[in-house]
Design goal:
The two termini are 36 Å apart. The chain contains 15 helices and twelve strands. It is an alpha+beta fold. It has a six-stranded antiparallel beta sheet with strand order 2-3-1-4-6-5, sandwiched between helices. The chain has a six-stranded antiparallel beta sheet with strand order 8-9-7-10-12-11, covered by helices on one side. It is elongated and about 75 Å long.
């Protein structure tokens, strides 16, 4: 986490799993020393963390560019020493055959980057990656993902060369990535529809306050029709009678949705994005209209950005992946999206019922959370399918 916003901004590097013990040290002594001397925050993630490979573990380094560089060099030194004791690695054997990296270390630098940020390392026409390679006398390669890249797909940037070149490459890549990162993680993950080749239809709910449902429907239903026509999704706005029946069936102690109407949206991930965006725009326009009326009447207007509430169902079979060990994954999704997340459970639910994730935030935050959940579910499915 960074020191200002709680967002995941640390640099993620991979090290061989066989050398992790040397980096941590007995009782964590080596890791504490690295933290103390560099000033950076350094953590070795669990074996099942996102980005981990069968032969490597993820180390997250956070702090200023200088602190992260110093910490990386210390981590790499210990990893390199331990790898040499164990007899080297296949990466080094391949690297030694290249004259440009004849003095390559046993352990290369491997940085995990989101797919959206790889372009800053490559540069226009490959100019940046070529310059880094030539100036620092290193060899840089970027893996090709085996799946359609999504907003959280990780790519591996591998740098081979001497220690001095690896340290300089780390520092320069971190600087490039930091400069390219958007101020808002929600803008990164939630500003576009989820990129999926699948046309699978989702059934999601948007909860709209009773006082605003008229703005969503519009005169003679014109606004509701515009949502359907503009997105291609099917929508159904809960009637008063349907709402009363729903509340009568639900446990009155739960008290959910008494002042809200459900807007059901059925469509692909892209159609969901378009429909929810149009609905959100209608809510914002209603806020502006009411603010103008309040100003005319000398009354205080509502303050703060308009937020929306979305109910996003997750198959119970995928719930463990979405939650993560000890809740770490769902906390990460909440942090990266900026949305508030809550798992809804009902007393009469069945074992195979979908679990609803309630998402609350401004439009981009709610979309970011939905996209990140979709990505987790997709990656789980691909792992189950295995190599194709």
């Amino acid at each position: 986490m960074d020191k200002q916003g709680g967002r995941l901004t640390g640099t993620h590097v991979l090290i061989p799993k066989d050398v992790v013990g040397a980096v941590i040290g007995k009782g964590g002594a080596v890791l504490r020393e690295i933290k103390r001397e560099s000033g950076a925050t350094v953590n070795v993630l669990p074996r099942d963390a996102v980005g981990t490979t069968p032969n490597e573990r993820v180390v997250v380094i956070d702090g200023t560019i200088e602190e992260r560089t110093a910490a990386f060099q210390a981590v790499h030194l210990r990893a390199e020493e331990e790898a040499k004791k164990l007899g080297g690695s296949p990466d080094a054997a391949e690297a030694s055959a290249d004259a440009a990296v004849a003095e390559a270390n046993v352990v290369p630098l491997k940085v995990l980057l989101r797919n959206e940020l790889v372009g800053v390392i490559i540069g226009k026409g490959g100019a940046t990656i070529k310059k880094l390679s030539a100036d620092l006398k290193v060899k840089i390669a970027i893996n090709q993902p085996e799946m359609t890249p999504g907003p959280e797909t990780l790519r591996i940037v591998t740098v081979e060369g001497a220690s001095e070149g690896l340290g300089a490459a780390f520092q320069q890549m971190v600087a490039l990535v930091d400069e390219a990162k958007p101020a808002s993680q929600a803008a990164l993950y939630g500003s576009v529809p989820f990129p999926s080749a699948s046309s699978r239809r989702e059934r999601n709910l948007v909860l709209v306050l009773e006082s605003m449902i008229g703005a969503v429907i519009g005169k003679n239903g014109i606004n509701a029709r515009s949502i359907t026509e503009g997105s291609g999704a099917k929508i159904h706005i809960e009637t008063r009678a349907e709402k009363e029946a729903r509340l009568a069936e639900e446990d009155s102690e739960e008290g959910r949705g008494a002042d809200e109407r459900q807007v059901v949206i059925i469509g692909s991930a892209e159609q969901q994005f378009q429909a929810q965006q149009r609905l959100y725009e209608l809510l914002v326009a209603d806020d502006r209209h009411k603010a103008a009326l309040a100003q005319k009447g000398g009354r205080p207007a509502r303050k703060g950005p308009r937020r929306m509430k979305v109910h996003f169902p997750v198959a119970v079979s995928a719930l463990g992946s979405v939650i993560g060990k000890g809740g770490t994954k769902i906390e990460e999704i909440a942090t990266n999206s900026g949305a508030k997340l809550n798992l809804l459970r009902w007393t009469d639910e069945k074992p195979d019922d979908d679990v609803v994730v309630e998402i609350f935030g401004v439009f981009e935050e709610t979309q970011a959370a939905q996209n990140l959940i979709r990505q987790v579910v997709l990656e789980r499915l691909l792992r189950q399918m295995g190599p194709q």
